[in-house]
Amino acid sequence: MNTLNKLGWSHFFESSLSFEEKQNMTIGRVSTVNKSNCIVIHENGSKTCELAGNLMFGLDENEKPKTGDWVLFLDYGDLGIISKVLPRYNCLSRQKSGKEIVEQIIAINIDYAVIVQCLEIGLNLRRLERTLVQLQNCNIEPIVLINKTDLPIDDEQQEIMNFMIDTYQAIPISASHGSNLNLLKDKIITGKSYVFIGASGVGKSSIINSLQEGNDLKTGTISQSTMKGAHTTTSRELYILQNGGVVIDTPGTREFGLTAPNSESGLSGFHGIDELAKGCKFHNCTHTNEKGCKVLKAVKTGDISEDEYENFMRLNREMEHYESSLQDRKQKGKKLSKIIKNMKKSGYKS
Ligand SMILES: Nc1nc2c(ncn2[C@@H]2O[C@H](COP(=O)(O)OP(=O)(O)OP(=O)(O)O)[C@@H](O)[C@H]2O)c(=O)[nH]1
Ligand SMILES: [Mg+2]
Ligand SMILES: [Zn+2]
């Protein structure tokens, strides 16, 4: 396999080039984007490239080269000048948090997204579910990792972990101990592109480091008072692994705001139904037999399929279960400590 194919080059991109372009230009893939230039990996190494003036002023922000884009550039020795951004196969984006709705591109031309959560910060089903919906909208296959399994785990997290393994084929790993890393390595195919996503501090850079000897991405510690990562990785960057596979490290993003689904009805998927459910007549609608239930109506008219409905109801039940059982345990814990306090007051000695 040649270097371009290892980098993810395929017929899709090949077919967008004219004969002249192939003759005169160098093809490369954007590894990282800086303020005034970007680093492009090509057949003979990597090169700092700048955008040609007409693109600099002619393209919208989201059309300018992003990590994972294929570009054509003219080689001027130390510097390359990008003259074309090739059509994108797909695009992983998220809705940036804040008042204004801004679509932020995370990576381009992606086959798999490796979603990382970890025991130290805590597993979160809803966040996982939102990310999965967004990936489906973007036509990207998910791989779910639970990192830091070397750390102690309580019953509730254990339960969620088991659920994630059963339902999403999540792989429990430990980047620091190296456990189950072979299961992840088995999933990495030469010529395919993998973007690592998840909150700051879950261990994305650590995992990428452990996939390849000699990799030395910066990693950072987690604040024990806020349980948040330090946002150690500050830019998106694409690497090519010796054993095959292209990986993209990203800065941590806690929430994965959904951009508009691209299904025809606009309703498909968990998120679509979730949105629809907000319009039900009763705010505590169970979507089973209520009058004025928008979800049931959409099932009737065929706007959502029976399967989608079943799936939605199942996930809702499961999430409710975890949330209520957590509440339950907290309340029981409080009751128990009250009983013990009273027993101590009344002179009971343990
Ligand atoms: N106990 C334990 N700690 C880990 C493991 N993997 C990573 N860590 C630690 O977790 C902290 C954060 O790891 P990073 O790799 O920087 O996390 P990240 O997801 O890249 O974070 P950002 O770059 O901020 O988004 C570091 O102190 C790592 O040493 C693991 O498997 N077990
Ligand atoms: Mg990082
Ligand atoms: Zn309803």
Molecular structure report:
The chain contains eleven helices and 13 strands. It is an alpha/beta fold. The chain folds into three domains: about 5-85, Nucleic acid-binding proteins (OB fold (Dihydrolipoamide Acetyltransferase, E2P)); about 90-250, 3-Layer(aba) Sandwich (Rossmann fold), CATH 3.40.50; about 265-350. It starts with a helix and ends in a 5-residue tail after the last helix. The longest helix is centred in the C-terminal third of the chain and has 40 residues, at about 305-345. The chain has a six-stranded mixed sheet with strand order 10-9-8-11-13-12, sandwiched between helices. It has a five-stranded mixed β-barrel with strand order 1-2-3-5-4. The protein has a two-stranded antiparallel sheet with strand order 6-7. Helix 9 (about 270-275) packs across helix 11 (about 305-345). The structure holds guanosine-5'-triphosphate (GTP), magnesium ion (MG) and zinc ion. Zinc ion binds near residues 280, 287 and 293.
